[in-house]
Amino acid sequence: MNVRGRAMRTIWPAADGRTVEIIDQTRLPHELVIVGLQSLDDAARAIATMQVRGAPLIGAAAAYGMALAAAEDPSDRGVESAMSKLAATRPTAVNLRWALTEMKRSLSEVPETSRSVAAMARAGEIADADVAINRAIGEHGAALIADAWHRKGGVGRVDVLTHCNAGWLATVDWGTALAPVYRAYNAGIPIHVWVDETRPRNQGASLTAWELGEHGVLHTVIVDNAGGHLMHEGLVDLCIVGTDRTTAGGDVANKIGTYLKALAARDNGIPFYVALPSPTIDWQIESGAAIPIERRDPREVTHIEGWTDEGRRVAVRLTPPDSPAANYAFDVTPARLVTALITERGICPASPEGLLEMFPERRRRVAR
After folding, report:
1. To 5 degrees, how large is the angle CA 331–CA 336–CA 341?
2. Is 367's pLDDT higher than 60?
3. Phi/psi of residue 50, each to 5°?
């Protein structure tokens, strides 16, 4: 994607071959800061503190974290220890577990003396695969936006509502929910995005708005609770969100507040799509009730960070000092509220049958 007129990814190996560089997303939108990760601890900290975030990017960062760990201790014990440390950073996104399992499998096939180089190469392959997957999601999802444009007679614009950040900043490149937006924009379809601010961390207001602006996509930031009003007034053509984990039954865990958007979309007859790369599907569970919901530091609710007009970064308290706060990071949208899932292989119903038809190799594994 474009940043200040040049193409960038969110994570990449540095020229020295020993460092992994990332965009520090906690500094956006006011500063574009590149941070070098040089150790397992650096990678774990980057994931836990949300310097990198979004399920696909968390998976890629975990893979590179395993590579950094292999450079420190390539032994079987070292690999197991690194897996445990990285797995504990974020519990909801299934991509993290998938990437760690894949890295362990890959490293088990090479001798310890070769693991450092092999791990960095495999992490790079995982990152490249994520880019290819998201590019394909964009192609399939852009067809839905084109259909909405044609239904409007090619007049005006297509209005898309999204929640949280599921753009290229949540992946290695392209994004999930925003990949269709970028593909449609690049194809010349006039498109506008309603950007939920997404309290409490404001990933929409700070990240989605920033990346859409950098790429030139028309957008408007709204408070989280405005979505239902916009839908009721006929100002939304379709909703597209991402997901941190989707069950084999089609239930979707995404940033807190997604469920409410799905309810409003259903009440107003507006399509509600979920864009997901296949590593985000948790084939081991059928119901969203089994998804662990991360509870984060209450300070993210009680305080907010921003920049003063003088250019200073400050944190201010929003709540009374003695008022407790609960910080549920995700909610689950049941499959019945999801119009369809947008995958790298195509668009399918949010149901066990739909997913198995799209990924028939999973059916064969179940049969065995």
Report:
1. 80
2. no
3. 70, 30
Give φ, ψ of 3 to 5 degrees: -130, 115
Annotated active-site residue 244? The verdict is yes
3-state SS record for the chain = CEECCEECCCEEECCCCCCEEEECCCCCCCCCCEEEECCHHHHHHHHHCCCCCCHHHHHHHHHHHHHHHHHHCCCHHHHHHHHHHHHCCCCCCHHHHHHHHHHHHHHHCCCHHHHHHHHHHHHHHHHHHHHHHHHHHHHHHHHHHHHHHHHCCCCCCEEEEECCCCCHHHCCCCCCCCHHHHHHHHCCCCEEEEEECCCCCCHHHHHHHHHHHHHCCEEEEECHHHHHHHHHCCCCCEEEECCCEEECCCCEEEECCHHHHHHHHHHCCCCEEEECCHHHEECCCCCHHHCCCCECCCHHHHEEEEECCCCCEEEEECCCCCCCCCCECEEEECHHHCCEEEECCEEECCCHHHHHHHCHHHHHHHHC
Global model pTM greater than 0.70: yes
Tokens 């198995």, residue?
Answer: 356
| Residue 55 to residue 53: CA distance in whole angstroms | 7
pLDDT in tens, 87-127: 999 876 678 999 999 999 999 999 999 999 999 999 999 99
Q: So what's the pLDDT on residue 2?
A: 82
Out of 237, 244, 282, 331, which one is annotated catalytic? 244
Contacts of residue 365, Cβ cutoff 8 Å, sequence gap at least 6: none
Task: Return the structure tokens found at 368.
Answer: 């065995």
